[in-house]
Automatic annotation (TrEMBL):
Source organism phylogeny: Bacteria, Bacillati, Bacillota, Bacilli, Bacillales
GO molecular function, one term: nitrite reductase (NADH) activity
Domain Rieske: 10-106
Enzyme class label: oxidoreductase
Keywords: 2Fe-2S, Iron, Iron-sulfur, Metal-binding, Nitrate assimilation, Oxidoreductase
Keyword rRNA processing listed: no
Organism: Paenibacillus xylanexedens
EC number: 1.7.1.15
Lineage top rank: taxon: Bacteria
Protein name: Nitrite reductase (NADH) small subunit
UniProt keyword Metal-binding, yes or no: yes
Any one Pfam family match given in the protein's UniProt record, by short name: Rieske_2
SUPFAM superfamilies, A to Z: ISP domain
């Protein structure tokens, strides 16, 4: 049996620094992340790189519900799984997020 080794959680800022539905770039240990706060307050962290073959940033995308609309290619990405929705395909690396006492922590 194999088990996934947990990463370490790093502070990314306080909740109020993440505006609803708008992405923000956070750098942690040479990882450039796009962090989003959904309208319901859920916070998501993803690689700040679209899975589209031509590449580009994700942090400039717009969040609707728990979906992100890629700013360059209008791909719809499920922020709970990182999966690009049909008819397109691909996946974004997502990172676990927790909030404690108003502080946002991201696991790398």
């Amino acid at each position: 049996m194999t088990t996934k080794q947990s990463g370490i959680y790093f502070p990314a800022g306080v909740v109020e620094e993440f505006l609803p539905r708008i992405g923000r770039v956070v750098e942690i240990n040479d990882h450039q992340l796009a962090v989003f706060r959904a309208s319901d307050g859920t916070i998501f962290a993803a690689d700040n790189h679209t899975p589209h073959p031509k590449g580009g940033p994700l942090a400039e995308g717009i969040v609707s519900g728990h979906y992100l609309y890629d700013p360059l290619y209008d791909w719809k990405i499920d922020l709970t799984t990182g999966l690009v929705q049909a008819p397109d395909n691909g996946q974004v690396q997502m990172y676990p997020v927790k909030v404690e006492n108003g502080q946002v922590w991201i696991e790398i």
